[in-house]
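FYI - complex with adenosine-5'-triphosphate, inputs then prediction.
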Amino acid sequence: LGRLFGPITQLSGMQELFQTVVVSFSRVFELLDLKPLIQERPDAVKLDKDVAPDIEFENVSFRYPTADEVSLASLEHLKAKRERGEVTPDVLRDVSFHVQAGTLTALVGPSGAGKSTITHLVSRLYDPNSGTVRVGGHDLRDLTFDSIREAVGVVSQDAYLFHDTIRENLLYARPTATEDELIEACKGAQIWDLIESLPLGLDTVTGDRGYRMSGGEKQRLAIARLLLKEPRIVVLDEATAHLDSESEAAVQRALKTALRSRTSLVIAHRLSTIREADQILVIDGGGVRERGTHDELMAKGGLYAELYHTQFADPRINEAKPEREDEL
Ligand code: ATP
């Protein structure tokens, strides 16, 4: 009997393994069955390539999907939860605004207000739960994924660099770019002087294990990518990190080139950007609380004026002064 003990415990171990495998398989089938949260319509159309489109939010409400919702097996469970009125709260509630083609709209507001969520909907990372997001007059849900990807260029706070050469990092934005086009984009993004000064120039390996770019340099490289991609809509999350004055002024100059004649939605942290904006939307609690230009909102003395004093008037954030006023 003693000799049987080993094999028996092994068998019971196998049963455990078998159960795990079966459960894993059923998870795999469940995942294969899953429909993506956003889908391209079979009759989806392409966005006109030649003009900068406008952006319109009409009565948009949105809440992030829960883990339950992305699992098909739990749809019944979710339905029951909905029937009991247990849903996640709306992150955006009845948001409406219009960004005219070729203009810059700054989104400002406290942390967690919903600013990034608005930008996620413009790139169609998610669909609204109600209401409509329109680009160039089209409901985003009627456009092909490719034309949205082509039209919208995103620069986030922390630009991701591949562990590869600067050249490859740039070609990722436009694989067919010529040497001259790469240099032109780097000049526009105020990063060419730095690249030219490196012994290997564009062939310098960057990323965590290569030449480590500073925050300001990474941002300018991201702007160079944007210039190569030539999107007609720019979604930009301005960095909150304090850059040194020189880097800051260079980033501002680069942005001026990058945003020219594009439709821009900027999560703004800098006074220079909000002063430049054609329109400022003050987002709070998932809604648009105030809208107007800097002067109009300051005169109103509401939430914007409060934010201005606590956030934007901070000389440490806005210390970078341009050499000339017209550079901003
Ligand atoms: P910040 O200025 O801090 O970046 P924000 O105004 O951009 O804030 P959002 O990031 O849009 O705010 O977040 C709005 C709300 O949505 C927050 O309550 C946040 O916790 C929630 N949220 C953001 N992303 C997700 C997500 N992927 N899943 C679930 N909830 C999320």
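The longest helix spans residues 2-33. The chain is about 40% helix and 15% strand.
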